[in-house]
From TrEMBL:
Annotated CDD domains: S2P-M50_like_1
Name of the featured protein: Peptidase M50
Record-annotated membrane-spanning stretches: 51-67, 87-112, 132-151
Family: Belongs to the peptidase M50B family.
Source species of the chain: Geosporobacter ferrireducens
Residue ranges annotated for the Peptidase M50 domain, each copy included: 126-162
Alphabetical keyword list: Cell membrane, Hydrolase, Membrane, Metal-binding, Metalloprotease, Protease, Transmembrane, Transmembrane helix, Zinc
GO biological process: proteolysis
Length: 209
């Protein structure tokens, strides 16, 4: 899908924040749980330059599907490998949800700023950026929880059912990676994640506005 220049500029902050904070959350959680691999690889930072994959970043702008550089972890360093891998996987999507909540609160606060401080054009632009950032991070939250490799949800799902190191997991992880591109190309992905995204997005507004 094509975006005009204004839309691209409005959506950029949400993408950059969403990707950077998501990967940082994975890295920080891994370090907290005993694995210093992300720290040694320089991933324990909020710098977008470290986390953003150039091609994946470009794809999300032009095709609404992209990716960041995944944080590498070594499960053998965890104190409780099964539990800690689930926690590391959850950290990224939960960070996106926190970002969405934060920008919703910013929208609420900005709503009360007098028009004499922010002219109409500036006010509308600021609110659009906040709204895009909120929306994008809700999308990232829902999308990454899908139990499809290589998304975080697959690690969470197979970890919860203690299936991660079974032959079924390795076969599914290898062959299942085809599922995600097929869902995207067929537009089936929108039908799968569209309703929960709308539910969360509208639900947040109904609570705070």
């Amino acid at each position: 899908m094509n975006f005009d220049i204004r839309e691209i500029l409005l959506i950029l902050p949400g993408i950059i924040l969403g990707f950077s904070f998501h990967e940082y959350a994975h890295a920080q959680m891994a370090v907290w749980l005993g694995d210093d691999t992300p720290k040694h690889q320089g991933r324990l930072t909020l710098s977008p330059w470290v986390h953003i994959d150039p091609f994946g970043f470009l794809m999300i702008l032009i095709a609404r599907f992209g990716w960041a550089k995944p944080v590498e972890v070594n499960e053998t360093n965890f104190r409780n490998p099964r539990r800690d891998d689930i926690l590391v996987s959850l950290a990224g999507p939960l960070m996106n949800l926190l970002i969405a909540l934060f920008f919703l609160l910013l929208m609420k606060a900005t709503y009360y700023i007098p028009s004499t401080i922010l002219p109409d054009g500036v006010y509308d632009t600021v609110m659009d950026v906040f709204d895009y950032t909120l929306w994008i991070n809700v999308v990232l939250f829902v999308f990454n929880l899908l139990p499809i490799p290589p998304l975080d949800g697959s690690h969470i799902f197979f970890g919860l059912f203690n299936l991660k190191h079974t032959a079924f997991f390795y076969e599914f992880f290898t062959k299942g990676r085809i599922i995600l591109p097929l869902l995207i190309i067929s537009n089936a992905l929108d039908r799968v994640i569209g309703p929960p995204i709308a539910l969360i997005y509208n639900g947040l507004f109904s609570i705070f506005f």
